[in-house]
Design goal:
There is one protein chain. By secondary structure, the chain is of the alpha/beta class. It has helices spanning 2-11, 13-25, 34-46, 105-121, 144-150; strands at 50-55, 59-64, 72-78, 129-135, 159-162. A 5-stranded mixed beta sheet has the order 1-2-4-3-5, with helices on both faces. β1 (50-55) and β2 (59-64) form a beta hairpin. α2 (13-25) packs antiparallel against α4.
């Protein structure tokens, strides 16, 4: 089976490059990933993966489900781009001015689509259900993850794997660990109560 999976993965190289390059061209801000969601949905349909759309507006989940399976694993990818202008001149560079996938979510989504292609091909050999979670708003803390959880995406999930890219790893190598990895962003507000003052008399202010 390992050899069959390897051969299937090798056959998907061209498709995965296409997935990544197409997604790279259409970066969208958090909770505005409409084109991204439509493209992912189209790909999953070609793989005969059932989809649920409209989660947190632009998020979606693909599912390989068999009633006989009692366990479910999930594989997650972020969807949103960032407000950074791409200046690469690549033939597949961002078509959205002022936006890019500088954080690598195009690669994350391509990896999960590749996993969906492989697992859907071998679905009769699976002994669990699989969810492919495409999460909006990763760059907008507290992120779309909490909202997707609130909408019930994780209720039947026993284990979840999340994906990202690391430029410190050579191409063709992967790094895996249990638990938290990399950094997380958050936002907070501070209210300062005091007395205003002039810049020339800072001792009179608080």
């Amino acid at each position: 089976m390992k050899q069959h999976i390897w051969e299937k993965a090798q056959s998907l190289k061209s498709a995965m490059v296409t997935y990544r390059q197409r997604l790279h061209q259409i970066p969208e801000m958090s909770y505005q990933e409409h084109k991204t969601g439509r493209y992912i949905n189209e790909v999953l349909h070609t793989l005969n993966v059932e989809t649920q759309t409209g989660l947190v507006e632009t998020g979606l989940v693909g599912t390989l489900y068999e009633p006989k399976h009692h366990k479910t694993i999930a594989i997650q990818a972020g969807m949103d781009g960032v407000p950074i202008d791409e200046q690469t001149d690549l033939p597949f560079s961002s078509a959205h001015e002022g936006l890019s996938h500088a954080c690598g979510h195009d690669g994350n989504m391509a990896m999960v689509l590749g996993a969906a292609a492989i697992l859907s091909h071998f679905r009769r050999h699976l002994n669990c259900n699989v969810k492919f979670i495409f999460q909006p708003g990763s760059e907008d803390p507290p992120a779309g993850a909490q909202q997707m959880i609130a909408e019930g995406v994780m209720e039947d999930v026993d284990t979840i794997l999340t994906t990202h890219l690391d430029m410190n790893l050579d191409a063709g190598k992967i790094s895996i660990r249990t638990g938290a990895i990399m950094a997380a962003a958050d936002q907070f507000k501070i209210t300062i109560l005091g007395t205003g003052g002039h810049g020339a008399s800072p001792h009179e202010g608080i």
